[in-house]
TrEMBL record:
PANTHER family: PROTEIN PRD1 (PTHR36379), PUTATIVE RECOMBINATION INITIATION DEFECT 1-RELATED (PTHR36379:SF1). One of its GO terms (biological process) is meiotic DNA double-strand break formation. This is Armadillo-like helical protein. InterPro entries: ARM-like, ARM-type_fold, PRD1.
Amino acid sequence: MYSITSDHLHRPDSDQHLRHRQHLTTTCSQGHTSSLILQTLEGGSICLICLSNLISNPNSPTVHVSYALSQLSQAISQPNFLHNLLTYHPHFLVSPLVTTISLFEDEAIAKQTIDLVLELCRSGNCEVYGEFVARVSDRLSSGELAWSRRQVYMLHCLGVLLDSQKNDPNTYIKDKDALYLNLVTGLQLPSEEIQGEILFVLYKICAIQHAWLGDTNGDVVCGHTSLILRLSLEALLKTQRDDVRMNCIALLSVLARRGFFENVFEDNNEADNFMETTEHGVEKTPLNLLFAEAVKAPLLSSDSEVQTATLDLIVQYLSCGGVSEKEVQVLVEENIADYVFEILRLSGCKKDSLVTSSLQVLDLLSVAEVPFKQRLAIGFTTMVAVLRYVAEVPFHPAQLQSLKILSECVSNCPGIISSSNIEEISLITAGMLKKHVDGDANMFPEIFTVVCSTLVALIKSPSSHGAPSIAKSLEDISRYTITICLSYYGEHLFQMLHSLYLLKVAYEYSFEIRPNYTVLRDCILDICVTKLLPWVSTNINEIDEDVALGVLELFQSILIPSDFQPKEFADVLVSSSWFGFSFGCLGLFPTEKMKWRVYFLLSSIVDVIVGNDSGQSVRDAASHLPSDPTDLLFLLGQKGAHNQEVLCCQSAVLLILYTSSLYDDR
């Protein structure tokens, strides 16, 4: 029974026999000992035995039970009452409260009781918490409540207890195997409410085990992993409730982190490509197909948190070691990439976490190159908008993925790109490079590389010829990239190679635009004369061979005979002792590749300066010419009147010496 003595408290008339006057009593009206009667701040008292008898009696009117629980809740909020309860009778109310949850199919009473349980666990010691976990899990392990509303309340109570964990609550669960079996059985029921509660309990159990056991799989849940995965995916596929989806996704995510997906894939790979059968011989849906189908509805949820959680689950799934390219291909063929592109389009880049997770998924799906390329056309316009968004945020984690996907779009689907797309992407990337040069927002080296690759693909796209404004962007981009490379050359060597190639392609592009865009051409020539030439001449001893070859290749592409022959550029090169510098390169890098590049560049200089395609003799003899200039003089001393090869080499040497002597380069 429940007893309280406070004149200002209202209570039902049927409880009048529990009221006492405001004076200390040694017993309650039922004669229970005073040691179990606790005083309240209002001057009343609560007999713990009367309270326990009332709330644990299935015949008690629910209105009385609810009132008693509310008065206990009010009393517990008083520090003195709570102190006395937890000091002298910490375990007294554990059993009655658990019994209350299991007795009444009343949601309000269940909520009141669970709130009291949680408050006692928060305020009490670990032993009180452990006893609550043990008693609640025992009820669920026994299955005595069947699958009723009371079972739902008990599941919710266990979920709340696990969520407020103290130490490792798994140690208080006595019969783990029976508990898991009952939970797995409950997952197969058609009730979404029961499924939601079970999924949350399983999620908390698995997450806590992961926190305490690490990556070891030596817990009871391992024996049920395959079934839990399948039932969870089936629940995710069928449910229309976002709260159930979130619990399901949370469970699947922690299972993925613990490597259970990988284990199932390994087992199923030995069993004929994931195919399982039921007891009646009916073939089950393969796990990878079930996963693909299950995530589609959550991806289209109106709740962005559900969408983000689903995307993160896909990332976990694709990142586990057991997923092969074939499984990735299944997701792409099941249109998951299309769903992700649609999420990005509809979100308008308003949710940063949604953008980041979406691009992570697309990046992982791109492993299945062939089917993924077929989906790029769907998402190209959306990806341009995403790039515009992430480019404004310094060090945005999705910059690299968005650029990589765009680069793949441009390279593999050139027909989908419009001239306006090209202009917009070039403006965005120019802005990113400018911020890096100005120091407003530094750029990761990998992003710089992909920017250059993307721009090269854009320039080579057929649509670039209809986008004359890209030439203006390329002027700025050319200056920015070289400035960045020269500033960070010692740290990021590979950046220079990509920048040199971009300059080469941009220079060739300046001839393809109609009319020829001389401003871009002059810009690149100015970069070569004022920045690259002084830098390479001064730092040749510190420059890598590949970079030196890249510079020589760029210079040669400028000097190749065409309608436009930059005589001034050739004059600048030779006036800068280029012949001597070239043989210095041969001394530093005595490789066949360097020899070919040096002599071909020298032949182009001869073509421009001497004219009449006179450099052809140097190109013809290049394979036989020596790398050491001293050997050139030795070659001239050879008698070769009847040896056409020697005569050809001597002619080439004389031409090189003659051209260099015109500029006093000895």
